[in-house]
């Protein structure tokens, strides 16, 4: 009897132990290998000023740690740690521990904007059997990309944007045929784009901007039927814009080839990109006219063609609403600010410096002034006064109008509350410098006809040089 009772009690105890165990499993207590791997990662981090890894404590369930996701029962499937860009303390210093390879079920690794993660290419990526997404961005990884990078052939996305990788892009990258996104932006990569990238037929994002890549841009774009974003800005590419880019119409949304050494003409076929949102061809050596076919870029929001050798006539565009336009420093003689620009209901940035504009600024009445943040009309032949414009553009942050024939009394200027940058150097401005300039971060009124004592200012003397009779700090004292 006693025996039976105790065995019943035993059974009861066993049952309750089992069910506790069961409950804990259901709650997803993480696998010991995952815990070990993550704690090794934590010990590779020397400094964590914002406490990003504070919740990572041995013996607690690693599935509850910040940045850790468990699916597949109790296995860690994703590690995602983000530094907040606005918070100067939100970073991690250290290296990526190779023990992360213990996380056998990891399919996504996101170590973004941690800023001070150093070391070479994380070889552990090769040891993770189900890895699919890699975003190790805005850190300080350095050295070369490994020759065997093609072994990561099951990856759907690979980004090492914003690191310090140098050397060439290994040709085995052509084996990453599942990639939808390849981002190697803002590293120190050199050499040519490997032709084998043409085999990555599923790419919808190809960003190699901000490197030292050179040679011609390969003419291999007919391979990519899904490409939406192409960014090769800020490299050393030469030669013409490749003809097969025409195959990317009409799906391509972003085409950014600025800050290179591309030459030749802007191809007519770009007018076929009816869905194009952003076109940046600035800072190249493109010549000739902007094709008439640009009339058909009806959806374009950002058009940046500055710093080339483009000439008139500029096509009458048929845009619903352009947001930003930069045609500065070509060989245009536009005469006027194009009507299709002035009528845009949403434009916030207008840059037409050195465009041969000859208007009286008082006569320019854009249909909307509410959204304007930046207006650059430097180095034109603009006369009159910006007083009315600056009084109407309430949210303007910067106005650049140097090198024109603006003739007005500076004391009549009223600064919108948001205005921070004002450059009216090399004009015909007269009167005194008003005390209201104290709200500006940057001001340049040098080489005008201003006179009188300067108000208190922290601006350097070069902001005021070359006037008729300005005096007082930072210029020499006024004579009494
Ligand atoms: C970044 O990491 C390096 C090496 O780990 C260290 O010397 C440096 O002090 C760190 N920088 C900051 C801002 O913590
Ligand atoms: C393209 O690259 C340039 C240069 O790195 C960068 O400033 C720009 O933001 C990139 N565009 C997009 C859409 O990411
Ligand atoms: C624009 O696209 C149409 C239809 O796809 C094609 O026939 C035409 O040749 C293209 N234009 C240019 C200049 O490539
Ligand atoms: C704009 O597109 C239409 C239809 O797609 C085409 O017929 C026309 O020739 C194009 N205009 C220019 C200037 O390329
Ligand atoms: C500036 O605008 C205000 C109201 O919006 C108006 O009363 C004032 O006359 C304007 N000043 C100038 C110089 O245009
Ligand atoms: C002001 O403009 C002049 C001439 O455009 C230039 O030389 C000078 O460096 C500028 N100074 C500041 C503070 O921007």
Automatic annotation (TrEMBL):
Entry keyword set: Leucine-rich repeat, Membrane, Repeat, Signal, Transmembrane, Transmembrane helix
Signal peptide: 1-28
Main location per the UniProt record: other
Localization per record: Cell envelope
Limits of the Leucine-rich repeat-containing N-terminal plant-type domain: 33-70
InterPro entries per UniProt: Leu-rich_rpt (IPR001611), Leu-rich_rpt_typical-subtyp (IPR003591), LRR_dom_sf (IPR032675), LRR_N_plant-typ (IPR013210), PGIP (IPR051848)
Any Pfam family matching the protein: LRR_8
PANTHER family noted in UniProt: POLYGALACTURONASE INHIBITOR 1, RECEPTOR-LIKE PROTEIN KINASE 5
Family stated for the protein in its record: Belongs to the polygalacturonase-inhibiting protein family.
Protein name: Leucine-rich repeat-containing N-terminal plant-type domain-containing protein
């Amino acid at each position: 009897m006693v025996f039976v009772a105790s065995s019943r009690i035993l059974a009861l105890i066993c049952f309750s132990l089992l069910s506790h165990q069961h409950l804990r499993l259901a709650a997803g207590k993480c696998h010991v290998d995952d815990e070990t791997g993550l704690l090794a990662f934590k010990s590779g981090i020397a400094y964590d000023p914002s406490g990003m890894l504070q919740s990572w404590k041995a013996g607690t369930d690693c599935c509850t740690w910040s940045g850790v996701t468990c699916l597949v029962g109790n296995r860690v499937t994703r590690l995602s740690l983000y530094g907040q860009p606005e918070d100067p303390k939100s970073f991690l210093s250290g290296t990526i521990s190779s023990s992360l390879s213990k996380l056998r079920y990891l399919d996504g690794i996101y170590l973004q904007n941690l800023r001070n993660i150093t070391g070479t290419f994380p070889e552990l990526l090769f040891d993770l059997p189900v890895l699919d997404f890699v975003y190790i961005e805005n850190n300080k990884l350095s050295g070369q990309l490994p020759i065997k990078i093609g072994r990561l052939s099951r990856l759907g996305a690979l980004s090492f944007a914003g690191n310090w990788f140098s050397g060439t892009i290994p040709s085995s990258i052509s084996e990453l045929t599942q990639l939808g996104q390849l981002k190697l932006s803002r590293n120190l990569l050199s050499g040519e784009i490997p032709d084998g990238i043409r085999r990555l037929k599923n790419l919808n994002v190809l960003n190699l901007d901000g490197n030292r890549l050179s040679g011609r841009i390969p003419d291999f774009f007919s391979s990519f039927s899904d490409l939406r974003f192409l960014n090769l800005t800020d490299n050393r590419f030469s030669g013409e814009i490749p003809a097969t880019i025409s195959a990317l119409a009409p799906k391509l949304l972003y085409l950014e080839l600025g800050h290179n050494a591309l030459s030749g003409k802007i191809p007519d076929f770009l007018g076929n990109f009816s869905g194009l949102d952003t076109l940046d061809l600035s800072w190249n050596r493109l010549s000739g006219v902007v094709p008439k076919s640009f009339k058909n870029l009806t959806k374009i929001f950002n058009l940046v063609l500055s710093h080339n050798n483009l000439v008139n006539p500029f096509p009458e565009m048929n845009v619903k609403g352009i947001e930003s336009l930069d045609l500065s420093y070509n060989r245009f003689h536009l005469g006027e600010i194009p009507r299709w620009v002035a009528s845009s209901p949403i434009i916030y940035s207008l840059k037409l410096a050195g465009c041969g504009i000859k208007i009286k600024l008082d006569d320019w009445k854009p249909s909307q002034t509410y959204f304007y943040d930046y207006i650059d009309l430097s180095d034109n032949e603009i006369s009159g006064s910006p007083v009315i414009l600056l009084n109407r553009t309430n949210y303007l942050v910067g106005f650049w109008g140097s090198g024109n024939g603006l003739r007005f009394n500076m004391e009549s200027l009223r600064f919108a509350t948001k205005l921070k940058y004002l450059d009216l150097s090399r004009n015909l401005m007269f009167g005194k410098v008003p005390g209201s300039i104290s709200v500006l971060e940057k001001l340049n009124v040098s080489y005008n006809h201003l006179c009188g004592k300067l108000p208190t200012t922290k601006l350097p003397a070069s902001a005021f040089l070359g006037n008729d009779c300005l005096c007082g700090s930072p210029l020499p004292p006024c004579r009494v």
